[in-house]
Specification:
The protein is 28% helix and 36% strand. It is α+β, with helices and mostly antiparallel strands and 376 residues long. Strand 14 and strand 15 form a beta hairpin. Helix 2 runs antiparallel to helix 3. The two termini are 85 Å apart. 23% of the residues are buried.
Length: 376
């Protein structure tokens, strides 16, 4: 009985005791870094179309049968090199006729002049009336005019004959041959014989929106747009496969007005193309560089996006974190350029943002150089 009573007392004493409280968890240790400002360069890319400095449609100036094709598609030709030959027989005969007509007119001129010379002394001696001499002189003038007309006909026939041999007006590459040997060709044809592109230099055209254009021209010194063009840095051409063209180009022309339909303005950059690696009709992208003074750069991994807004966790007093919205100016690799929301010297948390809440106390851990990435 005593033992049962003793156990009951011990049980009551044990039940009346309090459990010891667990110590609060230590603040999480997270890497932080200071935001510093500096000059940064970002790049923007714009779709572009490529054209040769000269793109010429080769069309016949006279009608006839295509007798010879001296080049193949894609061939490189020099200015003045023959590329097509139209049958010349008709035009050779027309030239011969014109030359014969000229000779006849010259002979008529000789006869008219002889008549004037014969009548002149007769008029002086009053053998015949002066009217006959005036008539003879008028005939001589008409004969002279006929010679000029005949010479013009010879020139026209000679030009038409010359048109039967079609030569390259510029150096460049031959496009597709739309007509083959034996085809009947003429000036009224809908399709050109071919196209010839001079691509020793190429023009690359791209468009800037109104806002981009304002930002673009505000980046560089100069009172006028022409002054700014002279001071623009070189630009890069990205080819269709994403690789950068080996040679840089220069922006040299900006269109005179905005397109009302698209709200953009066309800009031209010129690139050297000595090896002919780029052809007319190619597409690509122009990469422009923009400099930002006193820019704040933070890694994208140090941000979080909530409802289309971007936030960072700034470290405030007593190591409490505060969620701060930021405005993004642009991107550079894996970093953001910040317009506002933070300032130089602010401490921000670099990782572990998913587990943070407003007001959480942390133990700041100085980030290594490779992690901080907030630098000039």
């Amino acid at each position: 009985m005593k033992s049962i009573l003793l156990l009951s007392v011990l049980f009551l004493v044990a039940c009346s005791g309090k459990n010891p409280q667990a110590p609060p968890p230590a603040p999480p240790s997270l890497p932080v870094a200071s935001v510093v400002s500096g000059t940064e360069t970002t790049f923007q890319e714009y779709p572009a179309s490529i054209e040769g400095t000269v793109n010429v449609e080769i069309r016949p100036q006279v009608t006839g049968t295509l007798d010879q094709v001296f080049v193949d598609e894609g061939a490189l030709v020099n200015a003045g090199q023959p590329i097509f030959k139209i049958n010349e027989q008709v035009y050779r005969a027309a030239l011969n006729n014109a030359i014969a007509a000229q000779h006849a007119a010259e002979a008529a001129m000789v006869n008219a002049q002889l008549e004037v010379e014969r009548l002149t002394p007769l008029v002086q001696n009053k053998v015949i009336s002066e009217f006959q001499l005036k008539s003879a002189k008028a005939t001589a003038q008409a004969a002279k005019a006929n010679i000029e007309q005949a010479k013009a006909s010879v020139s026209t026939a000679s030009i038409n004959l010359g048109y039967t041999l079609i030569k390259a007006p510029v150096s460049g590459y031959i496009g597709r041959l739309q007509k083959k040997r034996g085809s009947l060709v003429g000036p009224a044809d809908v399709e050109a014989l071919t196209q010839l592109s001079d691509v020793h230099d190429v023009h690359v055209y791209f468009a800037l929106g109104e806002k981009d254009f304002v930002n673009f021209k505000d980046q560089y010194p100069g009172q006028t747009l022409n002054d700014k063009l002279k001071k623009l840095p070189a630009v890069t051409l990205l080819l269709a496969d994403g690789t950068a063209y080996a040679k840089t180009g220069k922006i040299d022309v900006i269109d005179g007005q905005f397109d009302k339909n698209t709200g953009s303005i066309t800009v031209r950059a010129s690139f050297p193309n000595p090896q002919g690696l780029i052809r007319s009709g190619n597409t690509g992208k122009i990469r422009l560089s923009l400099q930002h003074e006193n820019a704040l750069v933070i890694p994208q991994s140090a941000t979080m996006e909530v409802q289309d807004k971007i936030f960072v966790f700034a470290v405030a007093d007593s190591n409490k974190v505060k969620r701060q919205a930021i405005s993004i100016l642009g991107k550079k690799g894996t970093d953001y350029l910040v317009k506002d929301g933070v300032k130089a010297g602010d401490q921000i948390v670099l990782s572990g943002l998913d587990h943070l809440q407003e007001g959480t106390v942390i133990t700041p851990q100085k980030a290594t150089d490779k992690v901080a990435v907030v630098k000039k």
